[in-house]
Design goal:
Elements: E1 11-23, E2 38-41, E3 44-48, E4 53-63, E5 71-83, H1 86-89, H2 97-118, H3 134-141, E6 145-148
Parallel strand pairs: 3-6
Antiparallel strand pairs: 1-5, 2-4, 3-4, 4-5
Length: about 150
Amino acid sequence: MMEPKPINVTTLFKSLELVSFNAYEKPLDLEIDINKITFGMSLNYRLNAEERLVTIFTPIDIFSDESKSIKLGSINVKGEFVVENFEEIQLNQQLPAQVVAIYVGVMISSVRGMLKLLSKGTSFEAAIIPIINPLALLQSTELKPTEAI
């Protein structure tokens, strides 16, 4: 098995923006077990070669349990990263998975902190987005750019 070729990335964290946050009232008869709360992630990203910009959106839904039948809330955060050596690392209108994984890891960690602050007083305030391996997440979802802008 071949070792992945090291990639040197020169990048700057440009911005972090809360796109939306929603907390829904839970049904009165619903008892929430904090250990069963589930997060649904659907990450996507855009590339802008002209501006050497990678924009990642991290919409996350919060459900009462694995059945995902009762949605407790949602959060969507947009992060922008400038890649100084964009032309060197871009392949076929995509970035290598290990590069995107770095940005996804930063975004998920940022969303975890934002959600902790914003969810005070909600039915899911004690829930924390679990620590995940961003590269494994990318490989399981086959994340590709939603559009080249």
